Structure formats: C-alpha cells, structure tokens
C-alpha cells in the first residue's frame, strides 16, 4: 500500500531555512543590498563570522529630545572608554579612536557631536567622561525655556555656542550622522559629514545641528529651530531627531553598506561591529499624562522596533558583531528641576545611571520572541570593548585599509575647494559621498 510522502524530511533544518529567508528579505528591504550569497550558506555558523579584511566600527546613540536624556548613554560610553584605555594601555585614548562612524539622535546627537568634533589640538573636544559630567552639570541649560527665553531654541542655544563655537560638520574626526525632522519639506533630514564634504550647501554649524536634533515639539513655550547651512543655500525648520529617527542604528548601517567610496570592503553585517546605546526607557507611573508622554512612548517603541529588526538582520552574527545597551525605569527628570545642579544632584543622577548598567535586559531571538539576556549591560560593554581592541590591533598589522576617506579642505574665507584622496586603517579625516537627501 502506497504511503503519503512526508511533507518534510526529519533532518531538514527549519530554523536554518527561516533564518536564510529572513536574512535575505531583511538585507534587501532594511539595508538596501540584495546579494543572497552574503547570507546563504549550507549551515548556520557556529561561531561569529570573522573576515580578514576587518570590520567597520559603528556607534549609534538613541535620543528622544532633550540633551539631558543622554545620561544613560553617556555613562555607558564613559564605562566603555575606561575599558578601552585599560585594555589598550593608552590613558589618553578617546571613543573616537575606536569607531569609524558615529550616529546620534536627540541627546545622542549631542553626545556624538561632543565626542567626534575636532578640538584646537586636532583631538576630539571631549572624552566620554568629560561629556557625561558636562551633560549632568548643565541639564538646566539644555531644558526648553518659556516666555521671552523661548528664543534660545529658535536660534542655537548659548550652551551649544559655548561648546562648539563655529565648528561645522566638516570639523569632525570621523563621519557623523545626526537626524532631525524638517517641517519645511515634511520629511526627515540627516545631517551628514559625507554630504557636508561633498557640497557647501549641506555643511551646517554643529551648534545648529545639536539645537535641531534636540528641539522638543511637545515642550510648552518652545519653537522649531530655524537654521541654514554655512553658505545660506539650504534652510531647515527643524524639530527633534527623536521624532523622525529616535534610534539611528539602521541609518548608520545603511550608510556604511551602501557607501563604497568610504567603506569598500563592507559587504554585509559580518563586516560590521555595531554598538547601539539606548537613552533609558522611562516607566510612567500612574498612567499616561498627556501628549509629551505619548510622543516619548511612541519614540521608545520605534527605537525598540529598529533594534529588533537590526538584531534579526545580524542573526547568528549578533553574538559579537552587534550589541544593544538599554536601561529601563530611569527618570532623569525627577532628580532636579532647579536652574542649577548641586554636586549631590549630579552624584545621584550619575549613580542612578550607573545602576542601569547592572541591569539584564530582554533581547530579541530569531523567530522565538524575547529572552532575558545572559549578560548585564556592563558585561556587554566589556565584551564589546574586547572586540574593539582586537580590531584596533588587527589594523595596526594589516596594510589593507578599512576606511578610505576623501579629504576636503575648504578655507573659511573662500569658496575654493581642493581635495586629496587618503587611505587609512584606523581613522578617516574628512568624508565624501554623494548627497543622500
């Protein structure tokens, strides 16, 4: 008697097929490349894929509006920088020395700008520890003002002017990506050093960029930031980056994988090292209290969805190629509301942020929902620091460049532009790609 053939062989690996299908779809629609061979293999890798070419290092920092919301991410960066200094033996090392691209939104955009803008000595303006202390001590200065002082956010605030002076997107030690939402065009706008290097019309002052990405449309007495490029040709009416792109990780990955001028060997997620820092999710007590909280919740939900999509795209490579640091229950606003911040307030704020690094968070598992992470946030940072050091040391020994940068030199007093091509295995001075807007 004939028997009905089995629909599936017992040895057929369903998880393997599901992973391959999801990876192909995710890579095509999320990151914009569609070579199935980058992901398709005979069996799921048992260990993270390592390429002899090295891996592009990406830092992404969330933000939902206020610069003061960057305390959790700032604490994580200070912890990471301290670990990198200890492991490398370089006591003057900065975060920018170990990353090739930085993306930040809202508070994360301010942190990225502080850590990657070039100072008078050619080094980044701030160490991670200095940036954290500055944000904690000057939280009141970043807060939206009412009445006559609302103009502080209509034009760049004094705090940003004091930090960045006349520095522009071109004055960064590595490529940066900082989003806002442009009310004039009704679309997100991504401030990019690549675009700034390509054309004067996309070069903006860093103080304007930070004011734009931090503009909070839900705060009473605030207004959109009206700004223009250095040459005056591009005008933007901006509200905060958290509205348009609270978690810029996917945008940063897309920028690298589709930018062959700068990153010629980045063919897939296996060629990346990505750390994504959350801004700290606030657990609302007593229900939702109005539009600002709804906007914040929506922003946090979108950030979590981006994290889930990116984690799924990395699949088996996420073991050491992608790490997400997020804290839950942190409310920086409850510690003080006064114009000045006392030393005790700062200590409490930073102590609370440190406690968040001891948390173990939920993480996405391919087709299996969520599970509790085996490592605390601080332990994840230590593991990632180890991977960054390995990549840093590998580049010292390899003659093959990972980043190819186009150096653009534009005198501030002249519109004349000259350019030279340089290659480097550890840094990229100025970047050039076609405008992406």
Automatic annotation (TrEMBL):
Domain PNPLA positions: 61-253
UniProt-listed Pfam families: Patatin
SUPFAM superfamilies: FabD/lysophospholipase-like
EC number: 3.1.1.-
Protein family (similarity comment): Belongs to the patatin family.
Record remark on domains: The nitrogen atoms of the two glycine residues in the GGXR motif define the oxyanion hole, and stabilize the oxyanion that forms during the nucleophilic attack by the catalytic serine during substrate cleavage.
Name this protein carries in UniProt: Patatin
Organism whose genome encodes this protein: Phoenix dactylifera (Date palm)
Lineage: Eukaryota, Viridiplantae, Streptophyta, Embryophyta, Tracheophyta
GN (gene name): LOC103717915
């Amino acid at each position: 008697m004939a028997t009905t053939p089995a629909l599936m062989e017992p040895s057929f690996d369903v998880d393997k097929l599901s992973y391959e299908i999801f990876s192909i779809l995710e890579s095509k629609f999320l990151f914009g490349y569609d070579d199935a061979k980058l992901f398709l293999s005979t069996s799921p890798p048992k260990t993270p894929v390592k390429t002899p070419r090295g891996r592009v290092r990406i830092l992404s920092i969330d933000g939902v509006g206020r610069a003061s919301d960057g305390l959790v991410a700032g604490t994580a960066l200070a912890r990471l920088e301290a670990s990198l200094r200890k492991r490398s033996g370089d006591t003057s090392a900065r975060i920018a020395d170990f990353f090739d691209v930085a993306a930040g939104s809202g508070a994360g955009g301010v942190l990225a700008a502080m850590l990657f803008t070039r100072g008078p000595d050619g080094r980044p303006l701030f160490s991670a520890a200095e940036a954290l202390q500055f944000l904690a001590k000057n939280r009141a200065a970043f807060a939206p003002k009412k009445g006559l002082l609302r103009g502080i956010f209509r034009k760049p605030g004094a705090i940003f002017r004091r930090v960045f002076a006349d520095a522009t997107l071109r004055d960064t030690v590595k490529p940066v990506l900082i989003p806002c939402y442009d009310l004039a065009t009704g679309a997100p706008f991504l401030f990019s050093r690549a675009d700034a290097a390509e054309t004067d019309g996309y070069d903006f002052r860093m103080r304007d960029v930070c004011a734009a990405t931090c503009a909070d449309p839900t705060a009473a007495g605030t207004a959109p930031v009206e700004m223009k490029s250095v040459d005056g040709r591009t005008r933007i009416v901006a509200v905060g980056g958290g509205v348009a792109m609270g978690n810029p990780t996917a945008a940063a990955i897309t920028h690298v994988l589709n930018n062959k001028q700068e990153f010629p060997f980045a063919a897939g997620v296996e060629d990346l090292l990505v750390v994504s820092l959350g801004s700290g999710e606030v657990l609302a007590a007593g229900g939702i209290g109005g539009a600002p909280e709804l906007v914040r919740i929506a922003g946090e939900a979108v950030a979590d969805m981006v994290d889930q999509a990116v984690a799924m795209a990395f699949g088996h490579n996420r073991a050491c190629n992608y790490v997400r640091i997020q804290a839950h229950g942190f409310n920086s606003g409850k510690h003080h509301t006064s114009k000045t911040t006392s030393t005790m307030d700062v200590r409490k704020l930073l102590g609370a942020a440190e406690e968040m690094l001891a948390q173990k968070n939920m993480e996405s598992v391919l087709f299996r929902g969520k599970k509790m992470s085996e490592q605390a946030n601080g332990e994840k940072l230590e593991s990632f620091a180890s991977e960054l050091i390995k990549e840093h040391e590998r580049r010292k020994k390899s003659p093959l460049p990972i980043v190819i940068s186009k150096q653009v030199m534009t005198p501030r007093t002249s519109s004349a532009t000259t350019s030279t091509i340089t290659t480097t295995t550890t840094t990229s001075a100025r970047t050039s790609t076609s405008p992406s807007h």
